[in-house]
Amino acid sequence: MTFQVSKLSQKDFVIIQITDTHLLEYPHLEFVGMHPEQSFHAVIDLMRQQHPQIDMIVHTGDLAQNPTTVTYDRYLKHMQSIGIPFFQTPGNHDDVSNFPFHGADPHQPTVVEIGDWSIILLNSAQPTRIDGKIAEAGLEQLTELLKKHHDRHIMIACHHHPFAMESAWIDQHKLKNSSDLLETIRPFSNIKAIICGHVHQDSINTWQGIQFLSTPSTCIQFKPKSDKFALDEEHPGYRFIKLKANGEIETQVYRLSTSQRMNSSEVLGYD
């Protein structure tokens, strides 16, 4: 399914990536010693303070920790109240039967056209699994979309990380067919960036001139380069992305100045 946010060309666009909100069924509930609802709202408030003009928000998965219709409906209501176009793709904690997809087929990529850019959202979530995989049909559809949009700048979004984070415990849960994804995008020189969530931390990798960017969670953070599961003391945040008319990308991570205290990691289910 394709959406058009803006037809304007020769204009820079501001995109905000949020990820891994891990929202619970009711806003007062705690998760790993935090209130994900409060943290999520605080990140959204910071985003709006820092950037008065935002063209679009992209959520790269694990929207819910309790993936019920109650959780998703509350998320949608809050996002709609902001008045900024927003799009989301699922993570491993989401439930595809309840998730607010943008089309009838959960495996069909969502395409958002904004100026001379096309943003393609891929579903990398697998039922009952933590690791990720983009279905063969999804990769075939991606190929056709890249051919169709060959004259536009491209940014791709999915939940799972294609490149290793040098953390043994999280890398076993990465995108398992990342090599297939790389082979799919290799022939196309107009792909500028791939953004993901899942790892709850900021990272940048570059391959064939493409930036691969992971982004902090609006909730808890994972300690970088840790062999075993460990939480980090970094604060929740989001990624600012400026899509320039000439095809270049400007990006920066913003974090809350304070956050709630964290404790046990067992709730996540990664151990």
Low-confidence segments, given as residue ranges, are: none
List how many beta strands DSSP finds. 12
What percent of residues adopt helix (DSSP H or I)?
10-25%
**In percent terms, what proportion of residues is strand?**
15-25%
Radius of gyration: 17 Å
Strand neighbour order, sheet with most strands: 1-5-6-7-8-10-9
End-to-end gap: 36 Å
Order of helices and strands: EEHEHEEEHEHHEEEEE
Family: Belongs to the cyclic nucleotide phosphodiesterase class-III family.
Domain Calcineurin-like phosphoesterase: 14-201
Protein name: Calcineurin-like phosphoesterase domain-containing protein
Keywords: Hydrolase, Iron, Metal-binding
Condensed summary:
The protein has 271 residues and is an alpha/beta fold. Helix content is 20%, strand content 23%.
Structural account:
- It holds the Pfam family Metallophos.
- The protein is of the alpha/beta class.
- It has helices spanning 36-50, 69-82, 136-148, 168-171, 178-185, and strands at 2-6, 13-18, 56-59, 86-88, 110-114, 117-121, 153-157, 191-196, 203-207, 210-214, 237-243, 249-255.
- Helix 3 runs parallel beside helix 5.
- The strands form two sheets. Strands 1-5-6-7-8-10-9 form a seven-stranded mixed beta sheet, with no helix packed on it. A five-stranded mixed beta sheet has the order 4-3-2-11-12, covered by helices on one side.
- The mean pLDDT is 91.
- It has five helices and twelve strands.
